[in-house]
Amino acid sequence: MTIGSNIKNIRKNHNLTQEQFAEEIYCSAQSVSKWERDLITPNLDVIKTISSNFNVSISYILSNDDELNFEKTVLDTSISLLKENIIPSIEMLARSTALSKHSLQTLFNNDNDLIVFIIKKFDANIKKKLILNIDNNVIYTFIDNCLPILRMNKDILKPMYSDHNTSAIIIQYLKKTYSQLLKNHLNIHDELKVNIIVSNCIEIINAALTYYSEYSISDIKRTFSSAISDI
What we know:
The protein is mostly helical. The chain has helices at residues 3-13, 18-24, 29-36, 44-53, 58-62, 67-83, 90-96, 101-107, 111-133, 138-152, 154-162, 164-185, 191-209, 217-223, 225-229. The longest helix has 23 residues, at 111-133. The chain is elongated. The model has no long low-confidence stretch (mean pLDDT 86).
């Protein structure tokens, strides 16, 4: 996407006419029209004003909307929102970036899909670590190798685990993903045992990011040791 397209998306995401948008950035409607048609390019002062007044990064205004940049923009913006304790949504991303709501909805059917996308990005490293180190005591392996990664990203993940709706989405994703992982990599096909292991891992994640967030990894391991030893 061009700079003009990005500016047009920012304006439309805020439901403004060209005249109203022009007033917000102290320019003429004719200039806005020319930018959006890519007849001329706004100067840096104007881009800074758009960035400041509409809470959009300069890099987003100048960005190209190819798939790689698109996903990076979505993830980076979502992380920034989560650090401010704000749960990302399609509407929020459209307002915070130069991405149009329409382009976001081509990748995400709804806000739930967006949450799963974010979790998958964080989960990729965790799954890799678990697979490389997995043994018969899956929960100990998870605590020792995967929990530190989660704790490093606590400020980003905690808001999602603390929110009832997003937490439910994440738990559903984790149950499906890690049940399949146990069956494929440890050849565990006892559904009850799989459910117990996965449920314990999810509870450990939740504890480590919320009500035991100040506990050390070793403290969490001791806390859950009795449950672990029974599996």
